[in-house]
């Protein structure tokens, strides 16, 4: 099976957003990854609804929204209305995770949770059935272009085992420092989806970069 590629819009050229969206539409990427930051949960501010509303009419791919914000559930209905496919909240930001995941699904979206590099995958033991996807951060969230944390490979393998042992279909996505080399190791360890920002948008041929990641399989 091929890998679900989700290029991160954070590394796009905001002066030429339309061209970058056209490139994504033409590419083999299945999803587009949207990094929303509030300057509180993470030490950076990115973008929110105005940018999403601007790109939705032209985008032919599924929206995969990674919320690095303190109170993500305030916006569940707004994301659903926009046609977001996957709503992803941080484990470290949500006290009532089971309730949050149920609400995401009942609003017609796929439920996902992100774990920071220091959070072990085992914290999800009792909520795995409620999850369509788990995102493991392989850098500390807040910025593109950081160095991959190798420890993520072991976390990926442990999560793969937890999911497979229960016969679940929960996807594993990795975000941060992904390129062809780290991507290959991650897919071997059990990843289903790769987020890539600076690798894709900084590549001389972004379509080729996406194709390379998409072709990776276990
Ligand atoms: C970081 C974001 C990432 C970021 C990845 O907080 O969650 O999605 O865009 O960027 P790269 O691929 O450059 O590490
Ligand atoms: Zn992200």
Give a short account of the largest sheet: 8 strands, parallel
Q: Assembly type of the shown chains?
A: single chain
Class from secondary-structure proportions: alpha/beta
Task: State Rg.
Answer: 16 Å
What proportion strand? Answer: 15-25%
Termini separation? 7 Å
Largest sheet, spatial ordering of strands: 1-8-7-6-5-4-3-2
What is the residue-averaged pLDDT?
98
Counting DSSP E segments of at least 2 residues, the number of strands comes to 8
What distinguishing features does this structure have?
single chain, alpha/beta, eight-stranded parallel β-sheet, 8 helices, 8 strands, globular, binds D-xylitol-5-phosphate
Write the layout of secondary structure elements.
Blueprint (H helix, E strand, L loop, with lengths): L3 E4 L9 H10 L4 E7 L11 H7 L6 E7 L7 H7 L3 E5 L6 H10 L3 E6 L17 E5 L14 H14 L5 E5 L4 H10 L3 E4 L1 H4 L4 H9 L4
Parallel strand pairs: 1-8, 2-3, 3-4, 4-5, 5-6, 6-7, 7-8
The chain binds D-xylitol-5-phosphate (DX5) and zinc ion.
Question: Any overview of this molecule?
Answer:
- The chain is α/β, with parallel strands linked by helices and 218 residues long.
- The chain contains eight helices and eight strands, in the order E-H-E-H-E-H-E-H-E-E-H-E-H-E-H-H.
- Strands 1-8-7-6-5-4-3-2 form an eight-stranded parallel sheet.
- Strand 3, helix 3 and strand 4 (86-90) form a beta-alpha-beta unit.
- It is globular, with a radius of gyration of 16 Å.
- The protein binds D-xylitol-5-phosphate and zinc ion.
- The site of D-xylitol-5-phosphate has 22 residues, from strand 2, strand 8 and helix 7.
């Amino acid at each position: 099976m091929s890998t679900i590629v989700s290029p991160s819009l954070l590394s796009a050229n905001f002066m030429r957003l339309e061209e970058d969206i056209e490139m994504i539409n033409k590419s083999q990427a299945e999803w587009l990854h949207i990094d929303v930051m509030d300057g509180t949960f993470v030490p950076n501010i990115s973008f929110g609804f105005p940018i999403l509303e601007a790109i939705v009419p032209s985008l032919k791919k599924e929206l995969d929204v990674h919320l690095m914000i303190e109170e993500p559930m305030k916006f569940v209905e707004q994301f659903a209305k926009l046609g977001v496919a996957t709503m992803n909240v941080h484990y470290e930001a949500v006290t009532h995770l089971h309730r949050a995941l149920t609400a995401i699904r009942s609003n017609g979206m796929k439920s996902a949770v992100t774990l920071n590099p220091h959070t072990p995958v085992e914290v999800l033991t009792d909520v795995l059935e409620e999850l369509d996807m788990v995102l493991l951060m392989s850098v500390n969230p807040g910025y593109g272009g950081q160095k991959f944390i190798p420890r993520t490979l072991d976390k990926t393998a442990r999560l793969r085992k937890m999911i497979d042992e229960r016969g679940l279909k929960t996807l594993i996505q990795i975000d941060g420092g992904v390129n062809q080399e780290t991507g290959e190791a991650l897919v071997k360890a059990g990843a289903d989806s790769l987020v890539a920002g600076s690798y894709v948008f900084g590549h001389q041929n972004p379509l080729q970069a996406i194709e390379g990641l998409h072709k990776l399989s276990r």
